[in-house]
Design goal:
alpha+beta, 434 Repressor (Amino-terminal Domain), tt1808, chain A, six-stranded mixed β-sheet, 14 strands, about 35% helix
């Protein structure tokens, strides 16, 4: 290594990454400043490494350019995997706008035209990037799917369990294809080679750091709106499960107030009579 080559400072790394992101997304400085309501002179200072953005500005630009905030301090030019992914985003879905009004209104057809295996969900016409889950997340998905599937088979039930990735197109919500961690379907006539086109009976989402906001807000709203009978949100950080069930009260179409269980408590299924799951009894990898 040439000792005369000085390592880049954080300001220089961020500046170089911003220049690269502008090229990838084919955005001008003025366009970015307009989209994000950022001062043009301030943005130029960042590009020339005179100053660097505060954390809230980095978070805002990270959302806009579809990268994690921490990735601004990574040399993107030498990270071929991440750069390739960003180039794919640029060609298909573009940037994420700050305001709801500016967000592109994508269709189900747009979703199915993205490259096969592309980690995306479409909710209310907006694309959401799905990050790779961790080992604990995946072990929970596997264990829950195994237990639920085993119970169905033992009791000769008609329902089927589909672990993710499994596309669920919700036809009553415009521009929505979700990819739940676990989907339970009792009317399998709605399942085709693409996935499910219709409303699942039971959905389970296991939270991850990058998806928990979406699972608790956007997905909860659409699952409630379309009539998913039961929705479990498994929190592997707090070791809790939040269960939403359809209200039994006459005239109420949404969910009742959720029940929250610890991993040590038995959780009864409202879809399958007799099925009770204690998360602490599952073989969950804690790495």
């Amino acid at each position: 290594m040439d000792s005369r080559i000085q390592p880049k400072s954080p300001k220089e790394i961020i500046a170089a990454n911003l220049e690269l992101l502008l090229q990838i997304y084919q955005k001008s400085r003025k366009e970015v400043c307009t989209d994000l309501d950022i001062s043009y002179t301030t943005f130029c200072d960042w590009l020339h490494a005179r100053t660097y953005p505060r954390i809230d500005a980095l978070e805002q630009m990270g959302y806009y350019f579809r990268i994690e905030t921490r990735d601004f301090l990574v040399d993107l030019e030498n990270n071929k995997g991440l750069t390739k992914r960003l180039m794919t985003y640029a060609k298909t879905i573009g940037v994420c706008y700050q305001s709801e009004e500016k967000e592109p209104n994508f269709s189900v057809e747009d979703y199915y035209e993205t490259p096969e295996g592309y980690p995306l969900e479409l909710i209310n016409g907006r694309f959401y990037v799905m990050e790779s889950p961790g080992s604990k997340h995946q072990s929970i998905v596997y264990e829950l799917g195994f237990v639920i599937g085993g119970y169905i088979k033992k009791n000769k039930g008609k329902c089927r369990v589909y672990p993710g990735p499994f596309d669920v197109e919700l036809p009553t919500v415009k521009g929505t294809v979700v990819v739940p961690d676990i989907t339970v379907v009792c009317d399998t006539s709605k399942v085709d080679k693409k996935g499910l086109k219709g409303v699942p009976d039971w959905v389970i989402e296991v939270l991850s750091a990058s998806t928990q906001g979406k699972d608790k807000k956007e997905k909860l709203a659409v699952y409630e709106a379309v009539g998913v009978q039961e929705y479990w949100i498994v929190d592997p950080f707090e070791n809790k499960v939040c269960v939403y069930r359809r209200s039994d009260n006459v005239g109420e179409k949404g969910y009742s107030l959720p029940d929250t269980y610890t991993f040590e408590e038995e959780i009864p299924s409202g879809i399958m009579e007799g099925l009770r799951i204690r998360m602490s009894e599952l073989d969950i990898i804690e790495i």
